[in-house]
Design goal:
Layout: H1 3-8, H2 11-19, H3 25-34, H4 39-52, H5 57-60, E1 65-69, H6 74-87, E2 92-95, E3 107-109, E4 112-113, H7 116-132, H8 143-158, E5 162-166, E6 184-187, H9 195-198, H10 202-209, E7 218-221, H11 226-239, E8 242-245, E9 254-255, H12 267-288, E10 299-300, H13 302-309, E11 318-322, E12 326-331, H14 336-349, E13 355-360, H15 368-378, E14 383-386, H16 407-424, E15 430-432, H17 436-446, E16 454-459, H18 462-471
Parallel strand pairs: 1-5, 1-6, 2-5, 6-7, 7-8, 9-10, 12-16, 13-14, 13-16, 14-15
Antiparallel strand pairs: 2-3, 3-4, 11-12
Helix pairs in contact: 6-12, 6-13, 7-8, 10-11, 14-15
Length: 485
C-alpha cells in the first residue's frame, strides 16, 4: 500500500466511510413497509460479515458477554453494570448506542471511549477486509452492524474479562443477537417504541425483547406488565432459562455502605440500579461458583456501592452549570414513560424562581405531541425552542451526520411541534430555529441574566443533546461527569 493511501486511512475518513453505510431516509421507509419480511436477514448478514473478518461463531462464543435489551433505561442500566464490574476488579468492554458527540463513545474499554487511533486501526482493518470480499457493489454491513462487528473484534483482541452489550433496536433480530453465549441476560422496563418495526402491542414488544434470552441463561428483569411477564416466562421455559424479577426499590437491599443515590426520589433510577446490581452480581457469582444461584442476593458489597456511586452516563438526567446564570438539564428521554421521569426530575431539581426554558426535538416515529403533553402535565415553561439536531449553520461534525432523518423532515417536525405548543400554551413563547447556536443567541438576548437565572431542559433526542454539547463547546461532558448545582 502506498504511503499516501496509508495517510488517507485516518479517523476523519473512517467516519466518512462509516457514514456511507447509513440507510438514507427513503431506504429506511421502504424497510419499515416490509416490516418483518427480512427480519432474520440482520442476523444472517452479521454472521456472514463476521466470518469474512475472521470471527467465527465458535470464536464469538469465547467472548464473556452480558446481553441487555429493553425499552427504558437500557443504556444507563448497562453503564451501571459495567461500572459495578469494573469496581470489582474486572477489565471491561461496553458496546452502546447512540453516541452524543463522537462515535468512539459507543465502544468503551474500562469505562472510557476507545481512542480515535484505536478506532481507526480497527475500522480500516475490518473495512478493507469487507470491501475486498464484496460479492456485489452493495455487499457491505449497515452502519450499526459494522460497529457491532468492530466492537466484538476489539473486545476479543483486548481479551476483556467481560463485556456488556446493549441491544440496538428490539432484540430478537438485532445485530447483537448473533451472540449465542451470554449466561447472564437483562431486560429493562418495557414500553411501546419503534412500533413500525417491533409491533403495536406490549406482547409483541416483549417477544422482540425476550429474543435475546439464551439457553440455560439467568434472565433478570424488573417488575413488568402482566402480559409482558407472560411472554418472557414462556421464552424462558422454552430455553430452560431461569427468570429472576429484581426488587423494585433499593430499600429492599442490605448495604455494606449505602450509595448516594439512595436519596434519589426517582423510582425508575432505583429500579434500574437494582437490575444492574443483580445482573453484575450474578455474573460475578458465576466466575467463582459452578452452583446455580437460585435466589436474588440482597447484600451489596462496598465495591459494588463504589461502582454505583462512580457510574457516569452522559445525557441522562445530567446537569451542567453553564455560563453565568444558566444550568443545562440534559436527558435523552424519547418515550412517554421516560419523558415523565425526565419531567419530574426537572421539576424537582430546577429552581422555581428561575426562568424555565425547553429545547426540544424528536426524530423517527416518536409521537412528539404525546411527549410534549407529558412534559406540560408535570411542569411549566417560560418558553420553548424547537430545533433540529444541528449545532451550527454550515459545517457539521462527521460524527453527527445522520442520513436517516433529512434536515427538511426535521424542520417540518419542529414547525409542527411549535404549532402544537403555541396552541396548547395559548400562543405563548414557542420558537423555531435552524441551529442550536441560533437558539442560544436568542436565549442570551431575550432571557439574559438581568431577567434572572435560567434552567434549560434539553430533551426528546439523544442526538439533540450531542448537538447542544457541540454548539456550546462542552464535548468533554460526553466523557466525564459534571458538577451539578
Amino acid at each position: 500500500m502506498h504511503a499516501s493511501a496509508v495517510a488517507e486511512q485516518n479517523y476523519e475518513n473512517a467516519i466518512s466511510s462509516l457514514n456511507s453505510l447509513q440507510s438514507n431516509f427513503s431506504v429506511l421507509q421502504t424497510s419499515v413497509l416490509r416490516k418483518h419480511k427480512d427480519d432474520c436477514k440482520h442476523i444472517n448478514d452479521t454472521i456472514k460479515y463476521l466470518d469474512r473478518v475472521g470471527i467465527s461463531l465458535a470464536r464469538l462464543d469465547t467472548l464473556p458477554a452480558i446481553h441487555v435489551s429493553g425499552t427504558k433505561g437500557k443504556g444507563s442500566t448497562c453503564a451501571m453494570i459495567e461500572s459495578i464490574l469494573r469496581s470489582n476488579g474486572y477489565r471491561t468492554g461496553f458496546f452502546s448506542s447512540p453516541h452524543l458527540v463522537s462515535v468512539t463513545e459507543r465502544v468503551r474499554l474500562n469505562g472510557m471511549p476507545i481512542s480515535t487511533d484505536k478506532f481507526s486501526a480497527h475500522f480500516w482493518k475490518i473495512y478493507n477486509q469487507l470491501n475486498a470480499t464484496q460479492e456485489h457493489n452493495v455487499d457491505m454491513p449497515s452502519y450499526f452492524c459494522f460497529l457491532t462487528i468492530l466492537a466484538f473484534d476489539i473486545f476479543l483482541r483486548e481479551a476483556v474479562d467481560v463485556c456488556v452489550i446493549e441491544v440496538g433496536i428490539g432484540g430478537r433480530y438485532d445485530c447483537t443477537n448473533v451472540l449465542r453465549k451470554a449466561n447472564t441476560v437483562g431486560i429493562t422496563s418495557l414500553g411501546l417504541e419503534h412500533t413500525k418495526l417491533l409491533g403495536n402491542t406490549m406482547e409483541e414488544i416483549a417477544w422482540q425483547k425476550a429474543g435475546i434470552i439464551k439457553a440455560g441463561s439467568d434472565v433478570f428483569t424488573v417488575p413488568q406488565p402482566a402480559q409482558c411477564i407472560e411472554v418472557i416466562e414462556r421464552e424462558c421455559r422454552q430455553l430452560k432459562a431461569t427468570l429472576h424479577i429484581v426488587p423494585p426499590t433499593l430499600h429492599e437491599y442490605c448495604w455494606a455502605k449505602q450509595p448516594s443515590l439512595m436519596e434519589d426520589t426517582c423510582s425508575i433510577v432505583g429500579m434500574n440500579t437494582s437490575l444492574a446490581i443483580q445482573i453484575a452480581t450474578n455474573w460475578i457469582h458465576k466466575q467463582h461458583s459452578k452452583t446455580a444461584q437460585n435466589t436474588v442476593p440482597l447484600f451489596v458489597t462496598e465495591r459494588t456501592t463504589h461502582g454505583i456511586d462512580t457510574c457516569f452516563w452522559p445525557g441522562r438526567l445530567q446537569r451542567i452549570s453553564y455560563d453565568s446564570g444558566k444550568t443545562l438539564y440534559l436527558d435523552g428521554a424519547h418515550t412517554v414513560e421516560s419523558m415523565e421521569v425526565c419531567a419530574r426530575w426537572f421539576n424537582a431539581k430546577s429552581n422555581c424562581d428561575h426562568k424555565r426554558l425547553l429545547i426540544f426535538n424528536t426524530t423517527g416515529d416518536r409521537d412528539s405531541f404525546k411527549l410534549l403533553s407529558t412534559l406540560l402535565s408535570v411542569t411549566k415553561f417560560d418558553a420553548a425552542f424547537f430545533v433540529p439536531n444541528i449545532a451550527f449553520r454550515g459545517t457539521t461534525r462527521a460524527d453527527a451526520i445522520n442520513h436517516n432523518f433529512p434536515l427538511e423532515n426535521q424542520m417540518q417536525r419542529c414547525r409542527e411541534n411549535c404549532v402544537y405548543w403555541t396552541e396548547t400554551m395559548q400562543n405563548m413563547n414557542g420558537f423555531v430555529h435552524e441551529t442550536i447556536e441560533s437558539v442560544f443567541t436568542q436565549i442570551d438576548k431575550d432571557f439574559n441574566r438581568e431577567l434572572g437565572d435560567s434552567d434549560i431542559l434539553i430533551t426528546g433526542s439523544v442526538h439533540l443533546i450531542g448537538a447542544v454539547l457541540t454548539a456550546l463547546k462542552l464535548e468533554r461532558y460526553a466523557h466525564t461527569s459534571s458538577p451539578a448545582k
